[in-house]
Amino acid sequence: MPLDRPDPDHARRALLDERVATSALRDSMSARLRSVVDAASEATADDEHDPEGSTLAFERGQLVAQIERSTERLSEIEAALTRLDTGAYGVCESCGDQIAPARLDALPATRLCIRCASARTSRRRW
């Protein structure tokens, strides 16, 4: 049973809203990272006896990871906008089937239908 094609205006609004939110998150995390780096540079140089050293290092690592995820997410959003412009939006990049509208509502930048996404997740080896 074929699915309805996604409404391009609705999809574009959702992607642009997500881009704004993700950019704001990345900017916020970048500002926080600068604050943590500044705090670490003002702290004592004696790492062995610095009670805040491991806490600041952990927080810095968490912030860097979040910034990287946000940057990757922005790339995914831009790719989805390109697919929207070329008419490929809503088509699974793996199997070529249409992606369910509910999935696109939940994950506007998704490249895969639920079946293909599930198959990739189940093949992951830890």
UniProtKB/TrEMBL annotation:
Where exactly are the zinc fingers annotated as dksA C4-type?
92-116
Task: Provide this UniProt record's keywords sorted from A to Z.
Answer: Metal-binding, Zinc, Zinc-finger
Any idea where the Zinc finger DksA/TraR C4-type domain is? Answer: 87-119
Pfam families from the UniProt entry: zf-dskA_traR
PROSITE patterns tied to this protein: ZF_DKSA_1, ZF_DKSA_2
What's a single GO MF annotation on this record? zinc ion binding
Tell me the domain of life.
Answer: Bacteria
Name of protein: Transcriptional regulator, TraR/DksA family
Report the source organism: Williamsia sterculiae
